[in-house]
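Good morning,

Attaching, inline, the backbone tokens for the sequence recovery test we're adding to the shared suite. The designed sequence is right after.
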């Protein structure tokens, strides 16, 4: 039936498509809900969320993974909600941290939870490292609460499908093509919140995979460990492992406890591992040759370092105004080094003054005048801090095994076990609380540097090594596994090669000259680096010719609001992107409470920019009825 010619035709409802409904997409929905009352003021909006995985947790934080896999943050250090420390224009909408949510779940206040989740919530303390499955439940609840908080005119449409392609003119509506659906979604605006993605192999990985296929070996490329098929790692078999970060810890857990092994504690914190007999033997090596630094196991008491001090918005803005991109080592690292040193010594002088020789005010005034790495700074620190263990040495932290050589493999095992035990002891000792101040300095610096775009990969690796390591209990398990012979250390600067003559993989390290380990299995225990061109996501890969891709292979976006930059460097009026595949990648979609979370700032800016763009799409008459300033 056709409409009467005098019947007014309702204008189309503006639509926003978010591709990716994991933690980043969930955080964006929360910020849309917070800002919509001001910027839409009752106007209608169709909000489409596209993700084949359940919203909230997404792929990485999905529920269907082993309950043995933990977060590497304590429950009290995880939140999805902004607070008054976050530098944002939108309003704060308070919400519980993971620890606070778990307490509500334990009391039966959170409906719809299964008994297993409630049971874990009841056993949780503020300083417990929760399972990823519990975090999945928290993220699902945050998503549901965010959707419930949207104004009545904003309607959510969930699409449990994979987005395959994005097309559309720069100045017109966009089309998002979905797997298994003939017609695309039409969108006025699109936000890519894709999270960590799989990637196609690079040249070396492709060659190793081909070698494995030709010689009937097993090669596992870089990927999310929970997705890996570990059945090819046979009981008792030697397995070479490249990578000593969090992906290795997951691998270690899944092929030991995950195969029936158990631990006992002697009452002093020393664990003994009791094998099931189904474990392989993991020979692990990396550039540093040691695991990421343990999570610090005590809270900060007393005065916090006033950050930022030497690397804040003014310094970042000055770097942005310079012609050409800044050089990391020349322009950025000295500011980071000085900021971390300031955090370290502020804490040492104010919390542990008995270990210093001068007053903090005198040291601070002289410190401010010294260049990082200068002889003047070394002299100031030597004269003011008598114990070398209290002095900050970032190079030694980054390369703890530099130059060390061992006469045999067993000597290397003893040396690395001693390093891990010393790291654990220090990170559990509040007398070294300057380490925690450095951690806070790292968080501050990371948040500042996001506005500089692509600054290379080294900084992100250094940050993760010092600030995003495994829980202390995992390293205690690693020591037990090493003593039981289930894990063997290869050392620093380990090299992994394929030997066509012997038909095996080989690994060696200068830490034990002449020693070589052979195996028929090689596991890349690391996530693939984010890359537009090699992304396993078809939609993102398809944009490679339309967008600015940085030298590190990242999607270039505006630091102000996350708009995607086209090939000419112009911000796209209808496309945004957030997450690790962009050059504004934050350290995580959630963060510690009261730390001005970078992802929260980005989410708020993108949500406000998208809602402002939606407002401009409304019919003129509808815009006239919006309140002033909206």
């Amino acid at each position: 039936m056709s409409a009467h010619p005098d019947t007014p035709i309702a204008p189309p409802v503006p639509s926003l498509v978010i591709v990716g409904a994991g933690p980043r997409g969930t955080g964006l929905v929360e910020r849309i809900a917070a800002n919509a009352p001001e910027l839409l003021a009752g106007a209608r909006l169709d909000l489409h969320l596209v993700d084949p995985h359940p919203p909230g947790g997404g792929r990485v934080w999905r529920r269907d993974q082993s309950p043995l896999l933990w977060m590497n943050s304590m429950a009290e250090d995880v939140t999805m909600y902004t607070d008054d420390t976050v530098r944002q224009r939108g309003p704060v909408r308070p919400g519980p941290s993971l620890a606070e949510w778990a307490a509500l779940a334990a009391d039966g206040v959170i409906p719809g939870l299964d008994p297993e989740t409630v049971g874990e919530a009841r056993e949780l303390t503020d300083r417990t490292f929760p399972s990823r499955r519990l975090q999945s439940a928290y993220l699902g609840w945050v998503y549901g609460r965010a959707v419930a908080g949207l104004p009545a005119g904003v309607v959510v449409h969930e699409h449990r499908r994979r987005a395959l392609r994005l097309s559309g003119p720069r100045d017109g509506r966009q089309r998002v093509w979905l797997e298994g659906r003939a017609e695309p979604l039409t969108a006025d605006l699109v936000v890519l919140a894709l999270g960590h993605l799989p990637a196609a192999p690079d040249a070396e990985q492709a060659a190793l995979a081909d070698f494995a296929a030709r010689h009937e070996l097993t090669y596992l490329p870089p990927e999310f460990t929970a997705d890996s098929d570990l059945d090819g790692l046979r009981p008792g078999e030697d397995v070479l492992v490249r990578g000593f970060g969090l992906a290795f810890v997951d691998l270690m857990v899944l092929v030991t406890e995950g195969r029936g092994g158990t631990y006992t504690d002697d009452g002093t914190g020393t664990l003994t591992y009791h094998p099931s007999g189904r474990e392989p033997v993991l020979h692990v090596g990396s550039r540093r040759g040691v695991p990421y630094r343990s999570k610090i196991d005590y809270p900060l008491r007393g005065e916090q370092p006033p950050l930022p001090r030497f690397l804040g918005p003014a310094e970042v803005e000055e770097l942005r105004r310079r012609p050409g991109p800044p050089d990391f080592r020349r322009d950025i690292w000295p500011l980071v080094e000085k900021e971390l040193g300031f955090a370290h010594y502020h804490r040492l002088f104010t919390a542990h003054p008995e270990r210093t020789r001068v007053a903090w005010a005198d040291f601070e005034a002289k410190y401010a005048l010294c260049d990082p790495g200068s002889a003047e700074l070394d002299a100031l620190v030597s004269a003011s801090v008598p114990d070398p263990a209290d002095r900050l040495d970032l190079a030694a932290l980054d390369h703890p095994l530099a130059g060390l050589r061992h006469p045999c493999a067993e000597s290397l095992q003893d040396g690395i076990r001693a390093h891990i035990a010393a790291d654990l002891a220090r990170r559990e000792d509040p007398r070294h609380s300057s380490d925690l101040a450095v951690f806070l300095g790292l968080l501050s610096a990371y948040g500042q540097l996001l506005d500089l775009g692509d600054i290379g990969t080294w900084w992100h690796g250094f940050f993760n090594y010092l600030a995003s390591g495994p829980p202390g209990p995992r390293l205690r398990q690693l020591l037990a596994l090493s003593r039981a012979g289930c894990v063997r250390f290869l050392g620093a600067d380990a090299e992994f090669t394929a030997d066509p003559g012997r038909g095996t993989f080989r690994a060696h390290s200068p830490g034990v000259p002449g020693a070589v380990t052979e195996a028929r299995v090689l596991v890349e225990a690391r996530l693939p680096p984010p890359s537009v061109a090699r992304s396993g996501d078809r939609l993102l890969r398809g944009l490679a010719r339309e967008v600015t891709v940085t030298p590190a292979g990242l999607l270039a976006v505006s630091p102000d609001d996350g708009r995607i930059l086209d090939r000419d460097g112009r911000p796209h009026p209808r496309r945004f992107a957030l997450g690790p595949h962009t050059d504004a990648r934050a350290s995580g979609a959630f963060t510690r409470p009261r730390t001005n979370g970078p992802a929260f700032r980005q989410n708020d800016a993108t949500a406000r920019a998208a809602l402002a763009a939606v407002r401009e799409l409304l019919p003129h008459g509808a815009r006239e009825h919006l309140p002033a300033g909206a």
